[in-house]
Write a structure and sequence with these properties.
Blueprint (H helix, E strand, L loop, with lengths): L4 H21 L12 H32 L17 H31 L5 H17 L4 H10 L6 H6 L5 E8 L2 E6 L4 E3 L2 E4 L4 E7 L4 E5 L4 E5 L5 E5 L5 E7 L11 E7 L1 H20 L8 H9 L3 H16 L5
Parallel strand pairs: 1-5, 4-10
Antiparallel strand pairs: 1-2, 2-3, 5-8, 6-7, 6-9, 9-10
Helix pairs in contact: 1-2, 2-3, 4-5, 7-8, 8-9
The structure holds copper (II) ion.
Length: 330
């Protein structure tokens, strides 16, 4: 029985399409999506993977088919037919990829823009950032670039107070990259931490910079990556949506121990986050008052000095112990 070519082509096309869609949905390549922005990124990634799988199957399939269908017969010693190309075929296989690339470019830019705007709700936030950046700039005295960059970020908006009242103020965290660690400073409370603690479902603005060379702040579960550049402040606006512990990775080769420049991002429930903030604040004050006492180990000393209720005390200790002993997730 001979199947007509048109029908055969149609069937192959449908099969390739189904296979591509299946691969794009069931690839298991991405870790869990822990931020609101991740869904947009994942949609883009899924589309790209579907297209890539389809093209791969088409090209490799045609190659494999040709290997067998046009194989030299054992008794055939003649030359192949002289073929000088096919103009319409070349137009088709140039136009289709060109349109795909153009569409992907526009789609990517669209996703990029929507992500950049999520979390930066209202200009009150920007004014807030502005104040903070000035503080940072003042801190670093000689660093005039920082101030210049900062001002270009801020557009004065007379309507800002009205906008601000309707939105949740994003949590501000200043992120410092240095060889080979991350430092997180919470300007509202003065907390400094080696790990990024965040409350779930609250917008966050990270103000990122570096002290020595260029680094890049990356949390795969948030699907977000941003350069950390000395003398300049870059931002990431996002909203964590899943509680959990996620790796923070430096994604810019920054020196001999670049591979070890890792820490954790911990997304807490609201009360848990507040407990962490409180424990840090208590730890800060007690560190000043009992700094001279050296009879206990730093860890016991630290926990005892906090004088927290038992359950908090325990959870804090286990948190510390975990941070100490568990190999960092990667
Ligand atoms: Cu680095």
């Amino acid at each position: 029985m001979k199947v007509p070519t048109a029908i055969l082509t149609l069937i192959i096309g449908i099969l390739i399409t189904l296979a591509s869609l299946w691969v794009s949905q069931n690839n298991g390549l991405l870790p869990i999506a822990a931020a609101a922005e991740a869904t947009e990124i994942d949609r883009l990634f899924t589309a790209m993977l579907a297209i890539a799988t389809g093209l791969f199957l088409l090209v490799q399939g045609a190659l494999l088919y040709s290997l067998f269908a046009f194989r030299r017969q054992p008794d055939d010693a003649t030359d192949a037919e002289p073929i000088h190309g096919d103009v319409s075929l070349e137009i088709v296989w140039t136009a289709i990829p060109a349109m795909l690339v153009l569409w992907l470019g526009i789609y990517s830019f669209d996703v990029y823009q929507s992500i950049d705007s999520v979390g930066t709700m209202g200009s009150h936030n920007m004014a807030h950032q502005h104040g903070e950046m000035e503080m940072v700039a003042a801190d670093q005295g000689s660093d005039s670039t920082r101030l210049v960059v900062d001002q270009s970020d801020v557009s004065p908006d007379p309507l800002s107070p009205a906008v601000a009242t309707e939105t949740v103020e994003p949590l501000q965290v200043n992120v410092d990259g240095l060889q080979y660690a991350w430092l997180f400073t919470y300007p509202d409370t003065g907390i400094i931490s080696g790990e990024l603690h965040l409350p779930v479902n609250r917008p966050v603005t990270l103000n990122i910079t570096a002290r020595d060379v260029i680094h890049a702040f990356w949390v795969p579960e948030f699907r977000l990556k941003q350069d950390a550049v000395p003398g300049q402040v870059t931002h990431l606006n996002f909203q964590p949506t899943e509680e959990g512990v996620y790796p923070v990775i430096c994604a810019e080769l920054c020196g001999a121990y670049h591979g070890a420049m890792k820490t954790r991002s911990i997304v807490h429930s609201g009360p848990e986050y507040q407990a962490w903030v409180d424990s840090q604040l208590v730890a800060n004050t007690s560190r000043e008052t009992v700094a001279q006492s050296v009879t206990t180990s730093p860890l016991e000393h630290h926990a005892a000095a906090m004088g927290l209720p038992d359950h908090l005390h325990e959870s804090h200790q286990s948190d510390l112990a975990q941070a100490k002993h568990s190999p960092s997730a990667s």
